[in-house]
Amino acid sequence: MRKFAFIIHPLRFDDFARKYPITQHLPPKLVEWAFKQVGPVTAGHVTGVHSPTGEELEGWLLGLPLTPDILLNAPYEWVLKKLTASVQLAEKLGAEIVGLGAFTKIAGDRGITLSQRVGVPITTGNSYTTATAVQGTLMAAERMQIDLGQARATVIGATGSIGRAATFLLAEQVRQVTLVSRTEEDLKALAAEIRARHPAIKVDWTTHIPEAVRPADIVVAVSSATGTIVEPDDLKPGAVVTDVARPRNLSRVVMEQRHDVLVLDGGVIQVPGENADMGFDFGFPPKMVEACMAETMILALEGRLECFTLGPTIDVARVQEIRELGDKHGFSLAGFRRFERAIDDSEIERIRLAARSASA
What we know:
With 360 residues, the protein is an alpha/beta fold. The protein has helices at residues 14-19, 28-36, 68-73, 76-93, 112-117, 126-143, 161-171, 184-197, 209-213, 252-257, 291-302, 316-328, 345-359; strands spanning 2-8, 41-50, 56-63, 98-100, 122-123, 152-156, 176-180, 202-206, 218-221, 240-243, 262-265, 268-270, 288-290, 332-333, 336-338, 341-343.
């Protein structure tokens, strides 16, 4: 039986109160200080995962009680010690590979230094996240009857690891891509690289999100911002918006106010195995996980015990490779979902017709 571990952490302060109700009555700074003193804990036990190849999988979810603000703003050497302790716990449990969840993969140098300090391979999961996010986005665009050959796509967070790879994949399908990020020099360099590889498409860039989003038929949001950055009025009727970021780049208000826009969760994956139990409530139905966790599980099942995805860039060839390995081991997109709720063809058709009316 193969074994893996995956590191998770609270995405917002409210998550402390869900796990420890007493914290809702305490000052947030006091709660954060207290949990900064705590080491990693075993938060869940994954069982019952069976690949069609016959391979079985067991895993552990290891919790670090640190918010995104702490992970991003604390000295990286301190964060690194916390992550190293988590991986060492994973090794004691028997894990052969460890995945980094949410902001643990963003802090510092995206796992590179951590991988040099521990005895098991590390992966961020960003390759499979990219593969499934783009796959789901393009499938949804077809359902919304968007002509991909004429479509305009915008990637928010384009210079990050997922955003960069997603942009290259989208550039193979659409007429125009617009890149959004905070740093102009990084945007210029990425735009030049895309133009060199795909001279037939138009490439724009901007640091202004509404300007980039308003004309877009397709939006992929993968910014590492810790708050929502896309507002309801920013979006074009009929747009497909895939929110890959955690915490989300889009607020629920977008879905509630814009019935003519298809908002999707990015990278929610169905895990193989009739009795698969994730051992933790991620807010999904049973047997569903984020794609970054799924990548770790796929690599374990395949016996690819290596640092598959690390650092600030993703090899597009690896994105395709992990998608094929996912198919081999029975992992698949969990249909279309938004804000943890499944949506069916009839709902997509209602959105498409509402978009047609709004554009008339």
